[in-house]
Amino acid sequence: MILQLLAISAFVSLGTAQTYTSCNPTNSLKQWSLSTDFTQGSSDEWTAISGNVTYGSNGAEFTINKRYDAPTLETNFYIFFGEVEVVMRAANGTGIVSSIVMESDDLDEVDWECTGTDTTQIETNYFGKGNTTSYDRAIWETVSTPQDEFHTYKVVWTAAAITWYIDGTSVRTLEYADALDGKNYPQTPMVVKLGIWAGGDPSNGEGTIEWAGGETDYDDVPFTMYVKSVNIINYNPAASYNYTDQTGSYTSIVASNSTTGSGIHSSNSVSVSASSSSTSTSTSSISTSTSSKALIAEASTYPASVQTSSSGVVSSSSSSASSSSSTAAASSSASSSAVFTGAAVTNLPCFFFTAFFALAIALAF
Description:
Blueprint: H1 2-15, E1 33-37, E2 46-50, E3 53-56, E4 59-64, E5 72-75, E6 82-89, E7 93-104, E8 109-116, E9 121-127, E10 139-142, E11 151-157, E12 161-166, E13 169-175, E14 190-198, H2 206-212, E15 223-234, E16 240-243, E17 253-256, E18 269-272, E19 280-282, E20 293-294, E21 306-308, E22 314-316, H3 348-363
Parallel strand pairs: 1-18
Antiparallel strand pairs: 1-15, 2-5, 3-4, 4-15, 5-14, 6-11, 6-15, 7-8, 7-14, 8-9, 9-10, 11-12, 12-13, 16-17, 17-20, 18-19, 21-22
GO biological process, one term: fungal-type cell wall organization
Protein name: Crh-like protein
Domain GH16: 20-220
C-alpha cells in the first residue's frame, strides 16, 4: 500500500509540477504594480516551488538537467484582474514545454506554452474551474524563433475579456460570454507561475507527448528557459481575497482592505530588482480603511489601457475575438491540501475540490 501511495505521489508530482494550487488566496498584491528584473538576481516576491532556479545575465534560468526536473517560480501573492507581462526565451528540446501560467485556487487558468521544437508558434490557452472535458480552447499564435530570441508575452485580464499580446501586438481576445456563457471564464484571484517541464516524458499520455512535439531524450540535456523580467499590474489591490460562496464567480469575491496605504484606491508601486530583500517603494498618501469590499474597482482607478463597459465592469479596449482552435494536451491541476489561514470567509470552491481529490485517492486503495 505504501508503494502504491508512492507511485501515485510520483505520478501526481510529475503531472502537476507546473501547475497546482495551494488553496490559500489570503496573500494578495497590495499595490498597483510589481516589476521584477531577474537579470539582477532573485526576488523575495517569488518562490521556487519546484526544482532549482538560477540567475544570470539572461535573467532567471529554468533548467532541466535530468528526468523529473521541472523548475518553477510562483508569486507569493494573488492578483484579481490585471496585466502580466513576461520577457521570455523558451527552451529548446523535443517535448520540452516553457510555460507562463496564471492560476487560481478555483482552477481558473490563463496560459502561454511554447514547445521546444516549434520555432514559429506559441500556444495561448485558458481553463475555467478546472474544466478539462474538452481541449478546444487552445490557439497557436505566430512568433519568430521563440527558442532563440526573447519576446514579450503579455495578458490583459478583466471581468469582460482576456487579451493576449506578443511584442505589443494583440493576437487573441476571449470575451466573457464566449467561454461557455462565462461559466468557463477565468475570473478568480490568480498567482503567476513560470516554469519548464517535459511534456514529452515517456510516462505521459500519448496525446500529451504528441502535443509537446515528441518524446523527450534526456541524453540531450540541459534544456533551459530564460525569463528576463516580469511586470504585473493588479487592478484590484487588497490585503486578501475571500470566496463567499461556491459559484466561482468574480461577483462573489470579497476583498479585505484593512492595510494603510494599500487597497483598491491606492497607487502604490513596488519595483524589485535584486536578490536581497530590499525593494524600492513609492507609496501614495491614500489610506484605505474599508474592511471588506466587492472587487470591482471604479473606472477612474484603472489604467488607460482598459475602459468601462455599460455594465460597470472593466473590459479591454480591444473588442476583436478569435474563434479558431487547435488540439492541446491536458494541463492537469491537483490540490494536496486546503489551507484556511487568515481568511474571513472559507474558500468553499477550493474546499470541495480538495475533498473530491482526497476521496479519489482513498478509493484507489
